[in-house]
Each structure stands twice: as structure tokens, then as C-alpha cells.
TrEMBL record:
<dbReference type="GO" id="GO:0008171">
    <property type="term" value="F:O-methyltransferase activity"/>
</dbReference>
<dbReference type="GO" id="GO:0046983">
    <property type="term" value="F:protein dimerization activity"/>
</dbReference>
<keyword id="KW-0489">Methyltransferase</keyword>
<dbReference type="InterPro" id="IPR029001">
    <property type="entry name" value="ITPase-like_fam"/>
</dbReference>
<dbReference type="InterPro" id="IPR012967">
    <property type="entry name" value="COMT_dimerisation"/>
</dbReference>
<dbReference type="Pfam" id="PF00891">
    <property type="entry name" value="Methyltransf_2"/>
</dbReference>
<keyword id="KW-0949">S-adenosyl-L-methionine</keyword>
<dbReference type="Pfam" id="PF02545">
    <property type="entry name" value="Maf"/>
</dbReference>
<dbReference type="GO" id="GO:0032259">
    <property type="term" value="P:methylation"/>
</dbReference>
<feature type="domain" description="O-methyltransferase dimerisation">
    <location>
        <begin position="292"/>
        <end position="370"/>
    </location>
</feature>
<dbReference type="InterPro" id="IPR003697">
    <property type="entry name" value="Maf-like"/>
</dbReference>
<keyword id="KW-0007">Acetylation</keyword>
<dbReference type="InterPro" id="IPR016461">
    <property type="entry name" value="COMT-like"/>
</dbReference>
<protein>
    <submittedName>
        <fullName>N-acetylserotonin O-methyltransferase-like protein</fullName>
    </submittedName>
</protein>
<dbReference type="GO" id="GO:0047429">
    <property type="term" value="F:nucleoside triphosphate diphosphatase activity"/>
</dbReference>
<dbReference type="Pfam" id="PF08100">
    <property type="entry name" value="Dimerisation"/>
</dbReference>
<feature type="region of interest" description="Disordered">
    <location>
        <begin position="229"/>
        <end position="279"/>
    </location>
</feature>
Amino acid sequence: MVLSPVIGKLLHKRVVLASASPRRREILSHAGLRFEVVPSRFKEKLDKASFPTPYAYAIETAKQKALEVASRMHQKDLRAPDVVIGADTIVTVGGLILEKPVDKQDAYRMLSRLNGKEHSVFTGVAIVHCCTKDGQLDTEVSEFHEETTVKFSELSEELLWEYIDSGEPMDKAGGYGIQALGGMLVEYVHGDFLNVVGFPLNHFCKKLVELYYPPRRKDVQRVKHDSIPPVDTFENLSDAEQGSSDPAQGNEGGGHWRAEAGGDRGQVPAGSQGADSNGTVGVTAQFPAGLLELIDGFKASKALFTACKLKVFDVLKDEAPLKAMDIAGKIDASVCGTERLLDVCVALGLLEKADRGYCNTDLADLHLASDGEYSLHGLAMHSNDHAWNLFTDLELAVREGANAAFGRKAEHPVQSKQTKLQFMRAMHGLTNLTARQVATAFDLSRFTSACDLGGCTGALARALTQQYPRLKVTVVDLPEVIEHVPCFQPEGRQTEQISFVPGDFFKDNLPEAELYILSRILHEWPDDKVHELLSRVSGSCRPGGGILVAETVLEENRAARGSLPASLNLLVRTQGRERTLPEYRSLLEQHGFWDVRLAHAGDRLDVVLGTRAAPP
Ligand SMILES: Cc1cn([C@@H]2O[C@H](COP(=O)(O)OP(=O)(O)OP(=O)(O)O)[C@@H](O)[C@H]2O)c(=O)[nH]c1=O
């Protein structure tokens, strides 16, 4: 569980903590961040005197730690992680900077200085976004610091030595650990406790908000030139590989000390306009991280599809954890390629990686392995093998309109032999996920018979019969669909309440029923075909009978809820379209269905129920 949604912004990135500190690792993993730990080899020996403030020193050290790891990882496999986090904690007292003691005497000297006094603990943090361009590592650094004031009690020599002999001071800045025995030395703390322990989590989250939640256009600040801290130019922000970038820094943290130092090393994002030569007004724009995620979205989809196709999630459902090499053997793929794909799946939150190997996440077990009631493996495969190709024609479909594009490359999935089973699998998984909600969106207990037109594998029929034990459901679908229905019957759960009838609902007589169901059917067809179908349903339905339409109903401004690409899907794939409630109401009313009501059936689906009026 992730409390801070901003931490979630890092879940899809490969994040590395460039620190050997067990405390930092613990703080960040408790916050829900997923990361690898690669301790930095940077030697902490920058010339303290050359920094204008102690925290400038801590920030620079943090930055060098992170950059060293980024460049080492880049050199190792020519690919740096997306984000490297470095941190450095120091204690300052009387103008002196205290780091980790080198021995017991050093610890004693430090603790004696702190004894009975107030001191400051600074942690400098660097968040380094990396990208690889033409084989070169490109980095962009965001940095900040946090200060906490700590007061020690008056401590006896005996107590100090007892504490030193405990061994606790040795790997800790200032020679104490506030989170353990050292807590007994402390009278009060002002500020962020975790900052003393080694990582200012609260400030880190705020920084992520700054980085990943750019202000909306109307919030773009118009600021006076002299209120912008001195800035650098980071030239490669447009590289989508990078994932994110630093916005213009506020007048705080790393940006602030630089301003004080009169330096000019801060950063400004691409697209920002600096002040004009008169230094009057400029516009700063946050880096469009969300947009870049969108640009990269297809790569994530393709990685997921590929892992599904290679049955990675099936392999790991059967046996886990497994190392990349073992998985590669089982899926008959190269080790290096498999490892990369697996790591991407980890970054996408589909797999987990531990020392002993890779495992499925619960999400992957439930939805991406090919078996299981709620598997979306079929949908992923259908998207990969079919929808993907059709979407390459989106431009053509937009230029020429659905009718023109349809039929050129697009092929109705149910009519294609090759894709028929795959399409059934896709629909089966999707319907299973929503069937209960559709069945219960309205109280249908007054009906004793229903006919599910285009009911495919009977997934909705099953949910209906479970919900309404009196109800008998006839599923009508094309013969070539019905032929494969047995593959989708859960063992031991066949029910006499459901029967399957092969037929074409545009041509064949419709079975008699009190309730006719059209689930995810009408959006596939243009208005003339919808009228044709509704007129056939209306002709078969007795007065007092019903029609139940399950579709994503558009808002009145035609905005789709949930699945935005769906309407484009229709454009490239069929001649149909999604409709608003007034449109459905009008269609149904024209065919004698009244009292048309809407209910939501989850995030992406709505249910419309109409009652057949007596003919005039
Ligand atoms: C004041 C205080 C510090 N620390 C630890 O002191 C180390 C600072 O050293 P660093 O150089 O910033 O980090 P490191 O441990 O050398 O790791 P690295 O990041 O690899 O340089 C970090 O561990 C901190 O937790 C505590 O655990 N408790 C405290 O109360």
C-alpha cells in the first residue's frame, strides 16, 4: 500500500538508492517505494571550507554519491536506471561539520561537543533522473536539504563511554543514533525526526510532488525575474526515455544556497522562458512528466503484451521465485532479453524481484496468467495481435472516418477465424470482471427468462443465473462462437438454467424471452444497424418485458468515462460508436421501450434498462 500517491509516480521507474545506510533503505521501503540498493563508492572528502553553508556541502556530497552510482551503472550495462537517489547526513555544532567517527576517540570528541547543547542535523538529498542518449549518460539533478535541531542532555563521562562502548556511534553522523540507544541522550527535537535518522521523507515527497505534478496551465507562474533563483540549462529534457525532469526550482533547498552563493548552476526545464534582457517577466513551466509518460505508454503496453505472449506470468504462477536464466529457459528466449523484459515488468508493478529471483505480483497472478476466472491474458493477446495493428491505421481512420477505414485493413474480430478464439478469451475475461455488477445494477427478479444476444461464452448468463435462481437464460451467438463455448465452461459449474443457441441476431428468429440483453453489442454498430436490431428485439419482446443494454455510456458532453481510447478503438475497428444516455433513450423509445433508466456497473460500464410498452 502506498500512502503517498507521489511515491506511486516512481513505481513504474527503475529507482536506485545510492546508499549503504540501512536506515535510508528502511525509511524508503516503509514509504512503499520499490528500489534497488547500490551503495555509492564516492569518497566523502569534498573540501568543506569551499562551501558557503554546511548544507551546501551535504547536498553536493549527496549529488556526487548519486552521480557516481548512475555513471557506474551506465558503464556496466550501458543503461542507467531512471532515478538515482543520494543522501548525506551531517551534524553541525559551533561551525563544525561532524560526519561519522573514525574510531572511539573520535566518537568521544564528537559526543563531548554535542553534550548539553543544541545542534543541527542536515540531510542533503539529490534525486538524479538519468537517460541515455547516443550511448551517453545524461543526468538531471534535483536537490534539497532539510534541517532538524536536536538538543542533548547534560551527560556524564561514564554515560558517554558506555554509549560509545555499545558500538552504536560508529556508522552514524555526529556519533549517535537517535532512533536507538542514542535516543536516550536527546532532550528535544525540533523538526523532522526522520531527517536526523538519515532521510527527510516528508520533504522528499514534497519534492516529488513538485517534480511529478506540474501545475495546470492556468497555474503557470508569472514571476519577477529576480525571484527566480539562478539557473542552468538542461538541454535534453525532451528525451522521452528520461521519464521526468526537474522543474524550475523554487526559492528553497539547493536552489537557494546557490542563489546565495551567487552561482549559476541551478536548472530550468525545456520550454521555460527566461526573463527578457530587461529582466522583467518570465514564465516558468513545469516539466511535462505526465505527457512523457503518455508518449512512452505504448512501450509499457508492448512490454506487458510480450511478457503475456511469452507466458512469463504463467511460468511464474507455476513456480517462483525463478532467476532470469531459468525463466529464459522455460520461455525459450535469450537470457539478456528476458532479464530486461523482467526488469521492465518489475518497474511496471507486474513482477517483484528479490535476491532469489522474480515472482508474480498478485495482480499478475490474478489477471495476467492465462488461466483463472479473471484473467485478462486473452484481452492482452487480442490487443497485441489485433488491436495493435489496427491502431497503426488510426491516422487514416481519423482522416477518412470510420466507414472509409473499416474494411480496408480492419477486419471484424468475431468474423476472423484466426482471431475468434482469442477474441472470445478477451471478452470472457472482461465480462467475468463486470458480470456481477451488470447482473445486479437493477433488480431483475421479476423476469423468469432472458435472452443474451451476442452473449459469447455465457459469462454474463452465469452471473445472472447465480443472482436470480428462477431465471433461465438463452445465449445467442454466431455458430462459430458457440462451437468454442465448451472451452470456457468452468468444470462442474454447468447449469441447466443456461442454454446456447447458434444464430445471427440480424437474421434468425430470436428466442422468446421476457428480458433481452445486449451487452457490449450496440457500440459495435452504426445507427441503422442498431435500429434494425432493436426493431427485431422489440418485435419479439412482449409488453412488460425488458431490454437491458450494457455499454459505456458517454457523458452528455460526449466524454467517455474510464476508457478514453475506446471510441478510437471503435473508429479503427468497427463502424460503431459510443452513445450518450439521451441517445440510447431515444433509440429505445423509438422501438417501444419506455421508462429507460441508467445505472453504473463499475468504472467502465453502465447498464440501461427499458420496459416494453404495449403497442398502441
Ligand atoms: C544523526 C544520525 C545519523 N544516522 C546515520 O548516519 C549516517 C550518516 O552518514 P552518511 O554518510 O550520510 O551515510 P552512510 O551511512 O555513510 O551511507 P551512504 O549513503 O552510503 O554514504 C546515515 O547512515 C544515517 O542513517 C543515524 O542512523 N541516526 C542518527 O541519529
